[in-house]
Amino acid sequence: MTTYRRPDYHLETRLVHEGQERTPFGETSEALFLTQGFVYESAESAERRFLNEEPGYSYTRYSNPTIAAFEQRIASLEGAQAARATATGMAAVTAAIVSQVQAGDHVVAARALFGSCRWVVEDFLPRFGVGCTLVDGPDLDQWRQAMRPETKVCLLETPSNPSLEIIDIAGVAEIAHAGGATLTVDNVFATPLFQKPLELGADIVVYSATKHIDGQGRCLGGVILSSTAFIEGPLQQFLRMTGPSISPFNAWVLLKGLETLPLRVARQTETAGFLADSLYNHPKVRRLTYPGRSDHPQAELIKRQMSGGSTMIAIEVEGGKDAAFRFMNALKLVHISNNLGDAKSLVTHPATTTHQRFSPELRAEMGIFDGLVRLSVGLEHQQDLLNDLTEALTRV
Ligand SMILES: *Cc1c(COP(=O)(O)O)cnc(C)c1O
Question: How much is the average pLDDT of 294-311?
């Protein structure tokens, strides 16, 4: 439907222009088509459109020009053949997995997953006869051993939330494909700028667009990127019939968010690197993990599959939960929130919030200790952030 497709332009240029189709009014900014449906010139036209014999839109649960513009722009960013937007990141993950399996199938997933993603594979899918095995993501042997003839889907997130462990995407893709399964990567923490799972062999990439793609804490959204065969085949049917559609308004916000994504993520990553270096040897910090540091235990793998360190830092303070709480409560500029990827810097205590439902043993397996605080670095001045963090660390 859209005329603007110039793959020869650089990324920044495509993120400003790709997917825009001007109306006869000649508006500068992308039009927002806040409409449920579309009218037809004739009964014959409606019939043809339902037969897919005529281009055009029919109902926003199926598709919408503003949503399509967002999908085209992010597909261009990811280098994917096609994309579909959803109401939330969880709708994207759930649709991507559920549309690939049926009773009797099996899923292998990394243990360190975003809490709700883990619930979908570990608790929800088994209700419908789909088995699930969880593995330590960085250990490729565990992936190999978990594969079964009925394994259809492998799922991972890297860097993982919140411990920032790295999983070898190309390695897992090879194991998945050898076993006749596909690999889905939740790429939120790396952002579409720093990691290209499709180029590394993954079949499907999912995002919570709620995070860096919006980047200013306004609306929820998700997106699934893959081959045309998957997107327009099993996925499209699942989305159209079950209806986790994104609002055109939210798609418009996210579409505009893509225009500034490279600038925001570059600045946030630069600040994250500065903060990680400045706090690394702090006496109150037991352990600091940042994928952009050359002493990350998996630095070699990071160099192979990521082109930037990300906007997230994992800080384990000395003194467990009490110390972590004192640190968080003493922060003045950095806010306490379970969200991430915002222009505002945010801290989370995963053990008592996002990962509360797991036992201390399971949390330890995922690297989530009571002193661990996850920091999402925003767009504030780096010195103001460092001052706030250092001042608060005196309370630990
Ligand atoms: C936030 C997040 C999700 C869920 O996204 P929502 O938009 O909140 O539904 C899934 N995976 C990861 C890694 C996330 O950070």
Answer: 96
